[in-house]
């Protein structure tokens, strides 16, 4: 269930799945598993193993608006992110990983450098899995680069982007940070999705009811409302407006970068109608 690559926050090194397992096998948690008493029954053993693995591989995800100098996979492979330059994107990645480590996560994931966008097969897998990666993450850190400490949350461009919709809905636990990486509202909460006052503020820019913000289930239910949420947003590549909704509707369709947005949305609507029978989505 883990993403294909994760950043190891203590070292800043990008690790593929083999490297993730290798680090685990050298960890105290792995030695803890090897020393489990033989008296445990099968169910107890499975519970202990799952608890240790969940603790070790818990990871934070980054949700943000792409900016200047975002480091890509080729910029990060084979080096520590601490050795990168000081573009806005590189500094953002460094601060994000430091913040994830501060929250006691050894692993972090960013859509900038953890996906090989030159591989069409990997890009297809990533787009099909991205909703799940945010859902399985232990924490999503949202960086609002255009919001000051006293600024309006609702005015951020983050609420106008296509991909951030699924990141908002998929994540069980979210913390919002302002342009200088200060925790929004200076609250002591460990999860802004558990903050009633902040949830009220999220309804206006998203058009999403609180019950969906806190307990969203992917699928075809009330498809027209889900499409309406997306109608307020846009993407850099026009066809991404459809691709960014695949996880929300729990559909698996091929991606064809270069096709028109109209064609991509048409394929998505056809899939929704074929499964739900709800032709009202044509009027989204």
Describe this structure in words.
By secondary structure, this protein is an alpha/beta fold. The protein folds into two domains: 6-210, no CATH class; 217-283, no CATH class. It is 44% helix and 9% strand. A six-stranded mixed β-sheet has the order 2-1-4-3-5-6, sandwiched between helices. Helix 7 links the parallel strand 5 (139-143) and strand 6. The longest helix is centred in the middle third of the chain and has 17 residues, at 120-136. It is globular. It starts with a strand and ends in an 8-residue tail after the last helix. The model has no long low-confidence stretch (mean pLDDT 94). InterPro entries: HET. Residues 59-150 form the Heterokaryon incompatibility domain. It comes from Pisolithus microcarpus 441.
Compile the SSE list and pairings.
Blueprint: E1 5-8, E2 13-16, H1 17-25, H2 28-34, H3 42-57, E3 59-64, H4 73-76, H5 88-102, E4 107-109, H6 120-136, E5 139-143, H7 163-170, E6 174-177, H8 196-206, H9 210-214, H10 223-231, H11 240-243, H12 246-249, H13 261-276
Parallel strand pairs: 3-4, 3-5, 5-6
Antiparallel strand pairs: 1-2, 1-4
Helix pairs in contact: 2-3, 6-7
Tell me the domain tally.
2
Oligomer: single chain
Distance between the termini: 33 Å
Total number of beta strands = 6
The Cα radius of gyration reads 20 Å
User: What amount of the residues lies in strands?
Assistant: 5-15%
Helix/strand/pairing category: alpha/beta
* Overall pLDDT score: 94
Uncertain stretches: none
């Amino acid at each position: 269930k883990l993403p294909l690559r994760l950043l190891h926050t203590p070292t800043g090194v990008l690790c593929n799945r083999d490297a993730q397992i290798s680090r685990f096998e050298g960890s105290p948690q792995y030695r803890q598993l090897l020393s489990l008493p033989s008296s445990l029954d099968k169910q107890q053993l499975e519970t202990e193993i799952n608890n240790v693995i969940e603790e070790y591989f818990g990871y934070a995800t980054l949700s943000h608006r792409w900016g200047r100098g975002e480091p890509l996979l080729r910029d990060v492979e084979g080096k520590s992110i601490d050795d990168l330059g000081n573009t806005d994107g590189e500094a953002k990645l460094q601060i994000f990983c430091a913040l994830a480590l501060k929250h006691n996560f050894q692993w972090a994931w960013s859509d900038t450098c953890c996906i090989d966008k030159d591989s069409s097969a990997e890009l297809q897998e990533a787009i099909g899995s991205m909703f799940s990666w945010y859902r399985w993450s232990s924490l999503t850190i949202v960086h609002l680069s255009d919001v000051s400490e006293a600024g309006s949350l609702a005015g951020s461009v983050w609420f106008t982007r296509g991909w951030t919709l699924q990141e908002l809905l998929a994540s069980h636990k979210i913390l919002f940070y302002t342009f200088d990486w200060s925790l929004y509202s200076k609250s002591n909460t460990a999860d802004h999705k558990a903050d009633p006052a902040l949830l009220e503020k999220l309804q206006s820019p998203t058009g999403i009811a609180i019950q969906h913000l806190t307990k969203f289930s992917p699928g075809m239910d009330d498809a027209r409302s889900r499409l309406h949420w997306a109608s307020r947003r846009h993407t850099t590549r026009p066809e991404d407006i459809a691709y960014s909704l695949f996880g929300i509707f729990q559909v698996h369709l091929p991606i064809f970068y270069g096709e028109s947005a109209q064609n991509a949305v048409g394929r998505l609507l056809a899939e929704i109608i074929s499964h739900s029978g709800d032709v009202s989505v044509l009027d989204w």
